[in-house]
């Protein structure tokens, strides 16, 4: 086995080349990925998750979400994709330290804690810190989720944050009235 070290490298190169050709030239869905060789090559090099991919549970911001919330977001993302809309989690679970930093930045930006609370919660009140909230993007994904989210129990919570969703209703029921901004929830 150790006498032919070059052979596996050559084989790997051929496999990679074949897979590359197949993926870049095949427009026929019937033949795309239908050979065992292509499937094997794909299996050994899975496509990397993009940042914020709702199925990438290697990211703490996604893995530390409430499992029920994550299930709902993943189910919604699959259905949104069928409509040509790609849901991305721009921010999910946050550590207390991260939330404090965001709050401190908001105080600096808006001039007072009172004003900052309209945009960012403290570590004690943020649903992101408990894993019970997700921020979704881009804008067309927010609009899709505002229209369809209640079917999964997902609701916009604050009128001034179209990207922030939480489990807030029984799937299929209506969402509760929104708070004008996060300072109203306290
Ligand atoms: Zn949020």
From TrEMBL:
Alphabetically ordered keywords of this record: Kinase, Signal, Transferase
Under Gene Ontology molecular function, one entry of this record is: kinase activity
One GO-annotated biological process of the protein = proteolysis
- Protein name, per record: Sugar/nucleoside kinase (Ribokinase family)
Domain annotation D-alanyl-D-alanine carboxypeptidase-like core: ranges: 64-148
Identify the stretch annotated as signal peptide in this record. Answer: 1-18
State if Signal is listed as a keyword. Answer: yes
Q: Which region ranges are annotated with the description Disordered?
A: 21-59
Compositionally biased spans, kind Polar residues: 21-37
